[in-house]
Specification:
The protein has helices spanning 19-27, 47-74, 82-88, 90-93, and strands at 10-12, 32-36, 39-44. It is of the alpha+beta class. Strands 1-2-3 form a three-stranded mixed beta sheet, with helices on one face. β2 (32-36) and β3 (39-44) form a beta hairpin. The protein is elongated, with a radius of gyration of 26 Å.
């Protein structure tokens, strides 16, 4: 059972002696800002907020990778045959055992 958030923002300077209170506040659903010289530098957030943020970032990264792959596939530039690439880099590839090529 999760406690209801109190609806306030909790300011906690880095040298404050009450980190347990900050963790409790975040677990209850509040955002706890860590400040340095009055400026917010970090935040403790409820776990569901952190998970949602991480999932959103991952989705954006996946979307960016998909767009890059689609752009590469749509590129009308001529392709280079594998044999040509292997021939061009034969000296570098010679250092590797045959089973890794």
């Amino acid at each position: 059972m999760t406690a209801e958030p109190t609806g306030h923002v909790y300011e906690l300077p880095p040298d404050d002696v009450a980190p347990a209170d900050a963790v409790h506040e975040a677990a209850a659903g509040d955002v706890v800002y860590l400040t340095r010289q009055g400026e917010r530098v970090a935040a403790l957030v409820p776990l569901d907020v952190a998970a949602a943020g991480a999932a959103a970032l991952e989705a954006l990264e996946d979307e960016d990778a998909l767009r890059a792959a689609q752009a590469a596939l749509a590129d009308p530039a001529p392709s280079i045959p594998l044999a040509e690439v292997l021939a061009e880099h034969a000296d570098v590839l010679a250092a590797y055992p045959d089973d890794e090529r």
